[in-house]
Amino acid sequence: MKYTNLFERIGNIVLCLFYVFVILLLLGFCGLALWVDFLWSVSIYTCTFLFLLPGVVILINYLLGKIFGDRYRQIGWILEGESRIYEVIKTPKYCTRSMFVCFVEAFLFVLLIIRFIFLFYVKDGHYIFTIIGLIGSIIGVIICFILAMRYYKQSSLRDKYKQKIERQKNKQVDKFKFDKYPDLLEKYNAFKLWNSKKHTTFENPDEKKHALVELEKALDSLALAVFNTFNEKKPQLVVKSTGEKVEWDEVINKPFEELSYMEKLILVRLLDRLYKYVLPKEYYDYKEVKVKKDA
After folding, report:
1. pLDDT of the chain, 295 residues: tens digit per residue
2. In what order do the strands lie in the sheet with 278-279?
3. Alpha-carbon gap, residue 31 to 42, rounded angstroms
4. Cα 153 from chain centroid?
5. Can you state the angle between helices 182-196 and 205-230, rounded to 10 degrees?
């Protein structure tokens, strides 16, 4: 993540160049319409070099992504994710960066073909610029198309996964039966109430301090109630993501007074899962920290 600021700056530079390109292109069309050859020539030749820019940036992003891993590719300007330019242009939901640049490159490719044909009628000897632009735009279109298709495939897989999760949530499951434990329900509601205020912006610092104190009290009260309710029964717990079965004593193996904040939170979150007695994600973090600490 130390590269974030650097590549954000690069992204801003690329964005500025994109706007410069658009302005030059408009000037070129004005020059062509008004038969101002100097204005047309300056703008179209400058744009020819800028045609290469998207393809080069994508290629550099891809190579650096191979070196630094997937995390870098989330920082790049052209690759997957959100971008400032798309906040301005308001592209459709599935029109990703790669697709958008692919369309731009294709449009420029058509313009360069027109320019190439135009050169046969106006013998100004600048074929090399147009040929370079044609090659650059072809490379840009191919790379953008590959990235766009890959992103579309990933988006489809994510959508299918989300739909699968939603279907699982909608199934009839054995939810925690609070009606058997009214004392737990009351303390659980109190905890949820104060927990919802945790991220509230308080004008008075004392109010925030009071809310955090009440949240800590509610956590202790609910954790103690859970501990007293289940410590005798010692139900077997299940790690939801892996299906691994864990004994109660493996998670809670000491008197309540000696439990850490994380252990109390695990007790509380046991009630907040979709299935009964399913360990929350915090158990992983706690277990990992505990192992490292013991090691």
Report:
1. 444 455 455 555 555 555 566 566 555 555 555 555 555 555 555 555 555 555 555 555 556 556 655 444 444 444 333 333 333 333 444 445 555 555 565 666 666 666 566 655 555 555 655 565 556 556 655 665 665 566 556 555 556 656 666 665 555 444 556 666 777 777 877 877 777 776 666 667 777 778 778 878 888 888 888 888 777 777 777 776 666 777 877 777 788 888 887 788 878 777 765 445 666 666 666 666 666 655 5
2. 245-246, 237-239, 278-279
3. 10
4. 16
5. 150
Tell me the torsion sign for CA atoms 172, 173, 175, 180: positive
- Give the Cα separation of 263 and 251 in Å (integer): 8
Quote the CA–CA distance of 196 and 219 in Å, as a whole number: 13
Q: Which of 170, 195, 212 represents a domain boundary (last residue)?
A: 170
Exposure string for 77-101, b = 16+ CB within 10 A, e = fewer: bbbbeebebeeeeebeeeebbbbbb
pTM, two decimals, is 0.37
> Do 64 and 159 fall within a single domain?
yes
Q: Are 125 and 196 contained in the same domain?
A: no
For the chain, the maximum distance between any two Cα atoms, rounded to a whole number of angstroms, is 94
Residue type at position 144? C
Pick from 124, 147, 170: which residue ends a domain? 170
Instruction: List phi, psi (to 5°) of 279.
Output: -70, 135
Domain housing 247: 178-294
Can you list the alpha helix ranges (DSSP code H) found in the chain? 4-34, 37-68, 70-73, 84-89, 97-121, 127-170, 182-196, 205-230, 248-251, 261-269, 282-294
